[in-house]
Design brief:
Protein name: Protein tyrosine serine phosphatase
Distance between the termini: 42 Å
Radius of gyration: 17 Å
Shape: globular
Number of domains: 1
Oligomer: single chain
Largest sheet: 5 strands, mixed
InterPro entries: Prot-tyrosine_phosphatase-like, Tyr/Ser_Pase_IphP-type, Tyr_Pase_AS
Strand order of the largest sheet: 1-3-6-4-5
Strand content: 5-15%
Low-confidence stretches: 10-29
CATH superfamily: Protein tyrosine phosphatase superfamily
CATH class: Alpha Beta
GO molecular function, one term: phosphoprotein phosphatase activity
Structural class: alpha/beta
Family: Belongs to the protein-tyrosine phosphatase family.
Keywords: Signal
């Protein structure tokens, strides 16, 4: 994780200086790991101070509905947001809440900006551990099995159930692993197909021009959840202790009739 941060920082710096940036791990050579951007689903939100923010809306669900646009946002870290960026989030998206999935140490080093009228909540997926250098698999296993992760996902979903209007934004450092698994859980509740969940997960590669997000990592998360609970549905109900009334509220809040 730390190595990723260094590489991402170098990429940003070179981009700002106008230099050509060589894609990490030859990302552009593998189109399957970098899905094409669509303006119909999971639209990227182009900001000056965040590289990996997007709207989670647009996907069609198994029930024939669609995920609402403008209500759920996912992102990388927010400490570099400009005044213009925060204006867009609060004025265009009517941002009402931010859920920060990073560790306390990461937050202390790069705190989110304080936005008037926007509720902030910390819900660390990894507890106090933030160093998973060269151990992505270990991180995904922990995100599927550790109590800190379950508490984090539960807190996020409870906030989603209570959020009746405006946008809720959740994020980690790169907006990829912790944010990606949280989005996968949410999309599963909403009835989005696994194919589309994977596409959204891999879009972080496209937006950051890397190949760090891998299908096998997300599948490892699913595998560990299924091994312990039997299914994602049982994981949400028994592992995260989300009540039927809260699941209903989440679907009511973020699903709408699909237009042909």
């Amino acid at each position: 994780m730390r190595f990723r941060t260094v590489l991402a920082g170098m990429s940003c710096a070179l981009t700002l200086m106008g230099a050509a940036v060589v894609p990490v791990q030859a990302a552009t050579s593998n189109a399957q790991l970098q899905p094409a951007i669509s303006q119909k689903v999971t639209r990227p939100i182009k900001l000056q101070g965040a590289e990996n923010m997007r709207d989670l809306g647009g996907y069609k669900t198994k029930s024939g509905q669609r995920v609402k646009l403008g209500r759920l946002l996912r992102s990388d870290s927010l400490e570099k947001l400009t005044t213009y960026d925060t204006f867009r989030l609060t004025d265009q998206y009517h941002l009402t809440e931010i859920v920060d999935l990073r560790t306390t140490d990461q937050i202390a080093k790069k705190p989110d900006p304080v936005l008037d009228g926007v509720k902030y909540m910390q819900a660390s997926v990894l507890g106090s551990k933030s160093n998973y250098d060269n151990d992505d698999e270990g991180m995904y296993v922990d995100m599927a099995t550790k109590g800190a992760a379950r508490r984090s996902y539960r807190n996020l979903l409870v906030q989603m159930a209570e959020n009746k209007k405006g946008a809720l934004l959740f994020h980690c450092s790169h907006g990829m692993d912790r944010t990606g698994t949280a989005a996968a859980i949410l999309y599963s509740i909403l009835g989005v197909s696994k194919k589309d969940i994977q596409r959204d997960y891999l879009l972080s590669n496209t937006q950051l021009n890397v190949t760090w997000a891998k299908p096998e990592l997300l599948n490892l998360f699913y595998k560990k959840v299924n091994k312990q609970y039997g299914s994602m549905d049982k994981y949400v109900k028994k592992g995260l202790k989300i009540k039927p009334s809260q699941l209903k509220a989440i679907r009511t809040n973020y699903l709408t009739k699909a237009h042909k």
